[in-house]
Amino acid sequence: MPRRPASLGVLPDDLYIPVEPWPRIGRPAKHDLSAWTVTDDWPNRVPITDAELDVFEAWFGDLFDELFGPHR
């Protein structure tokens, strides 16, 4: 006999609408962006595998063609 999924019954209307934001543990985030420092310590060329390139071409190929022109 196939199993039936469990029934949750009637759910409250406000189940997914939080009244207040969830309290966060730890120190609060710094919202003053003028004090932030961005450091780029990556090399000029970052090696990637063929599989990684295939994923980017599959997901973003149309965008890349629009930005940079069609590939050769």
Order of helices and strands: H
**Structural class label:** mainly alpha
- Content of β-strand: under 5%
Runs with pLDDT <50, length 5+? none
**Biggest sheet details:** none
| Whole-number mean pLDDT | 81
What would your notes on this structure say?
By secondary structure, this protein is mainly α. The protein has a domain of 26 residues. Helix content is 26%, strand content 0%. The longest helix is centred in the last third of the chain and has 19 residues. The model has no long low-confidence stretch (mean pLDDT 81).
List descriptors.
mainly alpha, 72 residues, 1 helix
Strand-helix topology:
Layout: H1 50-68
Short description:
With 72 residues, this protein is mostly helical.
